[in-house]
Design a protein that fits this description.
three-stranded parallel sheet; 12 strands; about 15% strand; Bact_solute-bind_prot3; alpha/beta; Amino acid ABC transporter substrate-binding protein; five-stranded mixed sheet; about 40% helix; about 350 residues; 14 helices; signal; D-Maltodextrin-Binding Protein, domain 2; globular
Length: about 350
């Protein structure tokens, strides 16, 4: 696993050299000239990115991509979604195949310091877990001695799983796949005794299995897995756009600005913070080289962060994942928008 990681890092470093410095400070301009944002997404996981029965992609990451396109163009359709695997996602970003990753990607120190990329801001907090067949009788991860565990190549979950079982001196057999749907099929077919990945992705996987009640997500969490939007390190201005767009969606929820009331609040609010966020005064948009109504347009089209979350994985969805740490800070969660002034 370490060898694969080193090879991936070397491959990306070489790709970044070929990309050159020409892209520095030009991403937003290139997007505008192209007339389209290109967003890297998961190859398929319910709650984050999965085509519906009509083939239309849905999920939290998809809404964040659509909202960013709207902030730039005032049009969520000016967007191309590019599914990328865990093992190719960072290369796709580094070489310019995509402009940004909203793709269930954990922020880690080595990713931030060695890949020529930057994570813009945390938009989802998670932790590594395991899912087993309920009838197996397994109640905790330590019960998985000598078990075959499905894992996804190129993820932090490979290392987390190996580190955990090494720490308790318990052998296991990894069975590695490129995509989540492949691992889910192997789990269902009995090729694996457990599936190890982040708990939200386990919930998404369970929701798509024929009988979700057959599967148990063990309660233990073995890591911190904060998901962040990733951009190339050579463009500070584009980093600012992605970072502050994400904060704007969280700030909108903090202020109670929704898809339904955004227009009225823009017209009637006397709160200086609300007026800045919704573009009544122009300074936030000007600082990002966007239209003054950039955040207003995104909120009016997609809603605030909480609306995106509830639509994709809230209690009324098949995923049914409580917000927990992904609640805003005023309600006991970890999401906190930096001051937008």
């Amino acid at each position: 696993m370490l060898g694969r990681g080193l090879l991936a890092a070397a491959s990306l470093a070489g790709a970044l050299l070929t990309a050159g410095i020409a892209s520095a400070q030009q991403t937003l301009e290139a997007i505008k000239a192209r007339g389209q944002l290109i967003c890297g997404i998961n190859t398929g996981i319910a709650g984050f990115a999965l085509p519906d029965s009509k083939g239309v992609w849905q999920g939290l990451d998809i809404d964040l991509c659509r909202g960013l396109a709207t902030a730039i163009f005032n049009d969520p359709v000016k967007l191309r979604l590019v599914p990328v695997s865990s093992s190719t996602r960072f290369t796709a970003l580094g070489t310019g195949e995509v402009d940004v990753l909203f793709r269930t990607s954990t922020q880690t120190m080595l990713r931030d310091t060695t890949l020529g990329l930057r994570h813009a801001v945390t938009y989802f907090y998670d932790g590594h877990g395991f899912m087993v067949r309920r009838a197996s009788g397994v109640q905790k991860a330590a019960d998985l001695r000598d078990a075959t565990i499905c894992l996804i190549q190129g993820t932090t979950n490979e290392q987390v799983t190996a580190d955990y079982f090494r720490s308790i001196n318990t052998p296991f057999k990894p069975l590695v796949f490129d995509r989540t749907d492949q691992a889910a099929a192997a789990l269902q077919a009995g090729r694996c005794d457990a599936f190890g990945t982040d708990a939200s992705q386990l919930a998404g996987t369970r929701a798509t299995l024929p009988d979700p009640k057959e599967w148990l997500i063990l309660p233990e969490r073995f890591s911190k897995e904060p998901y962040g939007a990733y951009v190339r390190r050579d463009d500070a201005q584009w980093f600012d756009v992605v970072r502050w767009y994400t904060y704007a969606m969280i700030e909108a929820e903090e202020q109670g600005i929704t898809r339904a009331n955004a227009e009225e609040m823009r017209r009637t609010s006397t709160n200086p913070n609300t007026r800045r966020l919704l573009g009544v005064t122009p300074e936030l948009g000007e600082s990002l080289r966007l239209d003054r109504a950039w955040a207003f347009n995104a909120i009016r089209a997609l809603g605030n962060y909480g609306e995106m979350y509830d639509r994709s994985m809230g209690p009324d969805t098949a995923v049914g994942l409580p917000r927990g740490p992904n609640e805003i800070w005023t309600r006991g969660g970890l999401l906190y928008a930096l001051p937008m002034r």
